[in-house]
Amino acid sequence: MSTVALTINGQEVTVPKGTRLLDAATGAGFFIPTFCHDENSPNYGGCRICVVEVKGARNLVASCCAEAMNGMVVETESPAVVEARKTILELMLANHPVDCLTCDKAGDCRLQDYAFRYDVKAPALGGERKDYEFDDSNPYINRDMNKCILCAKCVRTCQEAEDRGVISLAYRGFRTKVAPALDASLAESACVSCSRCVSVCPVGALTYKSLSGKTRTWEVEKEEVTCTWCEAGCQFDLLRKNGKAVGVVAKSPGNGRPLCLKGRLGLELKYNDEPMTPMLKKGDEYVEVSWAEALGLDELVEKLK
Amino acid sequence: MGNLKEIRSSIEEQYKKRMDRPRIVVGLGTCGIAAGGNKVMDAINAEVEKLGLDVDVDFTSCIGMCYAEPVVEMGLPGQASVIYGGVYPDNVSKLIESHLVNKTPVTDMAEIQVTGGAAAYEGIPVMEKSPYYEKQVRSVTSRLGRTNPESIEDYIATGGYAGLEKALSMERQEIVDEVKKSGLRGRGGGGFPTGTKWQFVYDAVGDKKYIVCNADEGDPGAFMDRSVLEGDPHAVMEGMMIAGYAIGADEGVIYCRAEYPLAIRRLNLAIEVAEEMGILGENIMGSGFNFRIRIKAGAGAFVCGEETALLNSIEGKRGMPRVRPPFPAHKGLWQKPTCLNNVETFANIPFIVRNGGDWYASMGTEKSKGSKVFCLTGKINNTGLAEVPMGITLREVVFNIAGGISDGKQFKAVQSGGPSGGCLPAEQLDLPIDYDSLISGGAMMGSGGLVVMDETTCMVDVAKFFLNFTQLESCGKCTPCREGTKRLLEILERICEGKGVPEDIDTLERLAKTIKTSALCALGQTAPNPVLTTLRYFRDEYEAHINDKRCPAGLCSALLTYSIVEDKCVGCGVCIKACPVGAIAGEKKSAHTIDASKCVKCGACVPKCKFDAIVQA
Ligand SMILES: Cc1cc2nc3c(=O)[nH]c(=O)nc-3n(C[C@H](O)[C@H](O)[C@H](O)COP(=O)(O)O)c2cc1C
Ligand code: SF4
Ligand code: SF4
Ligand code: SF4
Ligand code: SF4
Ligand code: SF4
Ligand code: SF4
Ligand code: FES
Ligand code: FES
Fold first, then answer.
1. Which domains are seen in chain B, by residue range?
2. Ligand 4, closest atom to CA A143?
């Protein structure tokens, strides 16, 4: 395979042709923040936090989209880069309820981490903030669109699963938001509660209802578990707090690993000491169901009786 | 139908015959129709019938003199044609009687005359010598207002499709070379060399290639592309067909904003008749070259004019820009190599192919060749469409063509390039209009909107207007543009309301810098330009708003103060009744006063005072 040689922060780096700048830099041990970059649907280039300085380029370059080229001279943390990142974070925080004290995502939130790293205090810029209703209509997923930074990872991952594509970007300008069709609530939408979106959200905009208020992210230990319901073999994390299993959450969906509610519920039942109450959508509403029904085993169970 | 070469001469002959008959031509572009052109047309038809005149009544599109609409042309055999402005149903009969019956033009209603080789009438400016047209050129606009845009015969008789005929006999690379030689740069705003772009698409490997025409024209106040589409639809199509042949595409899409129904109708008609005549479709003019054109009506979002957002929109996706590279030339529509150009760019192509690249390059400056169509609007005497040679100065455009500032006011600034552009002050009036000079001044060629502002314009307010536009039109994909333009706008709003603080200027500049350098697409990257140029040239106005709570142009209502001039006030008390908040007090027959702490600056009292005693400052 042919390679390209470039200079990153003064260091010579050689990578295979076609490597993204982001990967070239992180591979060489340099840190670059990212919000919207997703290995499974790359080249989005929305959040702009990953910009770097490339000598000779008119503007800063989004490293998650640009390809490393021979002879490139790249700075990942130059004053111009740091200034842009700080301003971008400042802009995000100016439109964000800085709620870290009670936020379920605190400790595992990129916005929080990067604000800390770049010493951005909130809110430096005043002005209007989005003010959406908290959507807890879905029994599994909480959506707080006020915390959304519009990285669109959720949109892309939901669209990647063949039969889904439930949410998309709606409206323009400052009013842009992620929404199901007709800006309905998640419960009213065709969402199948697979949690793909939750697993990719870099901030606390999408969180698991079953874990809400139960744990702080740093208190839990994770153990990878694999679903065996179907041949896809999706991966989940079993969360333990003080040795006690408290929940099962989806790991990022991968190629051919669609994630589904049944899979997650099955693992909940299997591992969780206090599994959540399963609910399924019947007609327009979510209703409590038996585990057998939730897992699609009611007929089988009936026969076994 | 047969070979165009065979029928061309008969079409030309018929056209000449028609030009040698008494005729009335009504301007029916969108502007003409808006000004009442259809009613004028009806009145003319009725009058002609009533008098039983042997006269052809026809229509054309916008000639560019929007200030004179509704516009009607009258001509007699062997005589110059006179173009009248301000023609309404009630003066139609007078015009017809005088010009066509008594053969005496009505000089006081005449704007210009087109002699076409005949003797000129006295007392009417000849088009090429008239103040509006003297400094203009008529190349890409040559048919506008002169031919019937719905007649393919008019098009062919005036040299139409001769460029395509010639191109089909050339080597494909030769055509690309000719476009390179012309020096033509994209007229959609970016100014990318068209020939170079065509070469990229020519060189790109692909089983399928596309031609896409950008007719989204979203700049507020811009209507060049609309005028070209409405006035010369075949020229745009011919340009696309030549491009298709040159780069190896057999399919073209015109992405036209749905708000241009007349343009879409005329394009559809043009496509239909061109197909009937074998000029478009399969085996064009027997050459073996196939080309189809279809129209996609856009929903009218400004960002859909950005080329990659436009491609997404054609593909039925949300109109959001894609990351570039890959550029459309390599991965465009449906990921196939795509040659995407602006309406005016394509409309220039037939002329370039017919007359040669050198001919085109003889107009303009070293780096900006040819001509550019501008829309002149704002506080000027002549608003309209003007085609000028590149390199003409802003001063010539504002003071010669546009006829200077209206109402005897002072020039303050000219805004070029729409929301992506900037405001240039009087010191910059001698700047030549070309891509690079305008950028060096902080503005942009943009698509060709020029808005002229006078002393009553507040520059902070202008910046606010454009930021409001870009904020609403931002596609919302990237953080700097979506969030940054909102904060810029809020700060500008605060300054206009008298709530600005000295740090605001620094914050504006700081935000502007990040938005410019890190936004994803050119909408965001250029969005701060209106703020940056007004800060560069009119910083004192910002400072006056912030430090002295004063709007020098007297426009920002929150910064106005109202007071009563003691000497003039007779104490009639009328103002007291007019004031909705009880801010005015005073004894009858003695001078009244306004309590500034109560006054809400509504201005209601000013016109009520018969003695002009209440002043606004
Ligand atoms: C926000 C935005 C809006 C644009 N709108 C238009 C438009 O309305 N018409 C147009 O021709 N080009 C527009 N452009 C420029 C196009 O992206 C593209 O450069 C152009 O159509 C290419 O054609 P040209 O090379 O012939 O100019 C716009 C660009 C941006 C960033
Ligand atoms: S999403 Fe992140 S930054 Fe926002 S409140 Fe939660 S932890 Fe804090
Ligand atoms: S849970 Fe699954 S289906 Fe529902 S919005 Fe998220 S990704 Fe889409
Ligand atoms: S909800 Fe989360 S994943 Fe979706 S756009 Fe917002 S921040 Fe990104
Ligand atoms: S989570 Fe669903 S899709 Fe994934 S392996 Fe389990 S059953 Fe299959
Ligand atoms: S710069 Fe603005 S319009 Fe362009 S991609 Fe970003 S948000 Fe969208
Ligand atoms: S400007 Fe309006 S509020 Fe002020 S004094 Fe006049 S009428 Fe009253
Ligand atoms: S991570 Fe690169 S633009 Fe978002
Ligand atoms: S004369 Fe019609 S738009 Fe101008």
1. 18-129 (3.40.30.10), 152-361 (3.40.50.11540), 371-454 (3.10.20.600), 459-547 (1.20.1440.230), 561-616 (3.30.70.20)
2. 1
